[in-house]
Model the fold of this input.
Amino acid sequence: MLSLKQRRSLNTLLLGVLAWGVALAIFFPIFWMLLTSFKTEIDAFATPPQLFFSPTLENYTLVNERSDYLHFAWNSVVVSFGSTIIGMMLAVPAAYSMAFFETKRTKGTLLWMLSTKMLPPVGVLVPIYLIFKDTGLLDTKTGLVIIYTLINLPIMIWMAYTYFKEIPKEVLEAARMDGSSLFQELWRVLLPMSKGGLAATVLLSLILSWNEAFWSLNLTASEAAPLTALIASYSSPEGLFWAKLSAVSTLACAPILIFGWISQKQLVRGLSFGAVK
Amino acid sequence: MKSTALNAGPASAAAEPMQDSRQGGIRKTSRINRFMVSPSVIVLALWMVVPLSMTIYFSLIRYNLLYPGDNEFVGLENFQFFVTDFGFMAGMSNTLLLVGSVLLITVVLGVLISLLVNQAFWGRGIVRILLISPFFIMPTVNALIWKNLLLHPVSGVFAAIWKFFGATPIDWFSEFPLFSIIMIVSWQWLPFAILLLMTALQSLDQEQQEAARLDGAGPCALFFHLTLPHLARPIAVVVMIETIFLLSIFAEIFTTTGGGPGYETTNLAYLIYSQALLQFDVGLASAGGLIAVVLANIAAFFLVRLIGKSLTEKQ
Done:
């Protein structure tokens, strides 16, 4: 007979094992991708799938030669960082003014900004495509930066807004009474007090832009194509390519995965537009 | 200073001098304040109004990029063509099936898994990280890894499992194409539900739970009377936000099935894309785009109300 305490700890143990099992099952595709990236193409295609093999790094060295990985990676970096920087320059002042100088229209403005996010991209695909064609923005990094800034701006404003809301107004008022200018108030008081939240906002914007795959597939061809488009080009297979696909996918996902792990707790706020904290 | 005194009006007349200068400071900045929010408002307004009004205009004219110059006004003909096309019914039902199934799967599994992870056990931090990882994988990688490494009928992991149990491996993307898409999209969005619900569970009142347990409430009663009501709002948020994104699922279909076989995995987003950029019929695609906008707005209407409510609750 087990005592109540023993039964409880057995329960905890079983639940822990179950939780680990579920987590490993959900993570398995990523683990398998990582594993396959170190196989030779022969091992990658072997049936049954090989769990043990002699690892090789040749896929990673081949990836750049075959598909010009660095060109696409550079496009991804430029486009995500570009749109994030411009987005923050727009979002921080907007969130600041709405959080600390509330008017009757503030709530309506915030909800209206959220509603722009509801516009499905297909609804405006045709005009954007034609505008881009006429203005020469098609297949340029500038074009993608513009689009990504616009689609992520509402989320960034919302996220910054919910963080600013937590700072007592009095702190900023005190700084203003001491005669600091608007810029000083923002730079010396507001930013240091909310740097954790703003860092999470930056990370979320980087993650969303890096992984965006509707506009990048439709508006770029080769010149400005980011990693999402490079991976999509692997959908028509030429010979044995799975190990290379895995290698290029691992390279494309690793940085964002790490960003996501770092900022998981704060991301909830931005992803739910502040409704879940 | 003169203008601030004018702006402050009668309210400040009775105020203390100290208060008055404060009021003046706020009045002055309220103009800067308007200026600071306006760049965002302007770019978002342009982003909403310009392309959308172009879509409305295109949807009312005949406009095919292959036949330039022939752009007469045709009224609602494009809408009629789009709605009566065979692809439309398929696209609509696939869209609803996809959105509905993924929502069901992610919410049910999301609640169960977040409850499981909410217990104390060894390595909880790592389990959390493993669970939310798929959300950060880009959609094209997600699609190709599943298609080639896991669901492949010859050398995929699933085929090996099927063979291990003596069953014939399934060619997922040709035998159950929509189900396969639902599976890979659910894998990507389940972490989103887990992440939000896990966070919401942490604010669950532990004392209340303990009190109910001492009063003899079983785990089922606890779940349905305390936990589920607490999760109602986060679940609603998950459903609404996922709906917005799932209505425009594109990359997963683009990289795996290309909408096929036939129209079996064509959703509304993919149908409009193929109308516009593969068949160059701008008028027809615009009509379809507007229908997608209306659909999304029906979903958005509820979301905005929901989040608007939580915004007022906070204040």
Chain A touches chain B through 103 residues (CB under 8 Å). Chain A has a mean pLDDT of 85.
